[in-house]
Design brief:
Oligomer: single chain
Order of helices and strands: HHEEEHHHHHHHH
Strand order of the largest sheet: 1-3-2
Radius of gyration: 21 Å
Number of helices: 10
Number of strands: 3
Shape: elongated
Helix content: 40-55%
Structural class: mainly alpha
Number of domains: 1
Bound molecules: zinc ion
Distance between the termini: 74 Å
Length: 254
């Protein structure tokens, strides 16, 4: 190729990259692309979820700029009354799907790097968690009050404990459905101080929680696991630091 041809070839490549409306200049999903992807693929993704986890009531998924609704860093949200999931359309995702990443990128990503599909799996699990608790209550099964959506949280530690369990299950499903690389080097709080330190909040709720629950959920499965967990009081700060204390006091419903 002569120099002129080379220049044209490079220009052509640049144009090609710029003209793919699904990606922004950082090669990340664009706002336009996120909306298109969610519209086109939500049914397929929900089917993948129900095929591999369990059946789920009808859910509609939309995109919005979630930072306009107070959740500055939120990627997704589930609204139980309306059976709606909203994923943010801000350009914060690393890819649409984990399988689109190169093997080396797959190895490098952490729990903070989320694909659009991973966030949808996470939010679908909030819906599934809600559905499981609602079904238990309708069948007359006991659900501990911290998980009853009444927002009556007598104790701060149990409030964090309930969020810790629910978020941990949602993240566990992201790994279970292989929409993230395996959890490595999890943050492990050593003291109650580490648990309550607000600078650790994200690590505790979205990272350590998965480590805390993995053996238990691997053993009992997602549905049974939720049923056992919500029929017991959530872990206290002390029990979050010492998982053995928590799992040994669980009562297993028959
Ligand atoms: Zn969540």
């Amino acid at each position: 190729m002569n120099t002129i041809s080379k220049i044209f070839f490079v220009l052509f490549l640049i144009l090609l990259v710029q003209e793919n409306p699904y990606y922004n200049k950082f090669k990340r999903p664009s706002t336009y692309g996120i909306t298109q992807y969610v519209e086109k693929f939500q049914d397929i993704i929900i089917k993948e979820y129900t095929d591999n986890v369990d059946s789920l009531f009808h859910i509609d998924v939309f995109t919005e700029n979630l930072s306009l609704y107070g959740g500055k860093n939120d990627l997704g949200a589930f609204f139980p009354g309306d059976n709606i999931i909203i994923l943010t359309n801000k350009e914060k995702y690393i890819e649409y799907e984990f399988k689109n990443l190169t093997k080396s990128k797959q190895r490098l990503i952490t729990y903070r790097d989320r694909t659009v599909k991973a966030v949808l799996f996470h939010e679908l699990t909030h819906a599934y968690f809600y559905q499981t608790v609602a079904q238990m209550k309708m069948s007359g099964l006991y659900v501990s009050s911290e998980y009853s959506f009444l927002n009556l949280f007598p104790q701060l530690d149990l409030r964090l404990g309930a969020e810790f369990i629910e978020e941990g299950i949602c993240e566990y499903v992201v790994y279970y459905l292989k929409e993230s690389s395996p959890l490595v080097n999890p943050f492990i709080p050593k003291t109650v101080k580490d648990v309550v330190d607000s600078s650790n909040e994200i690590y505790v709720k979205y990272h350590y929680s998965v480590y805390f629950l993995t053996d238990f959920l691997d053993k009992y499965g997602i549905k049974k696991g939720i049923e056992i967990l919500v029929s017991n009081k959530p872990p206290s700060y002390e029990e979050m630091v010492n998982p053995k204390l928590f799992f040994e006091r669980l009562i297993y419903p028959s």
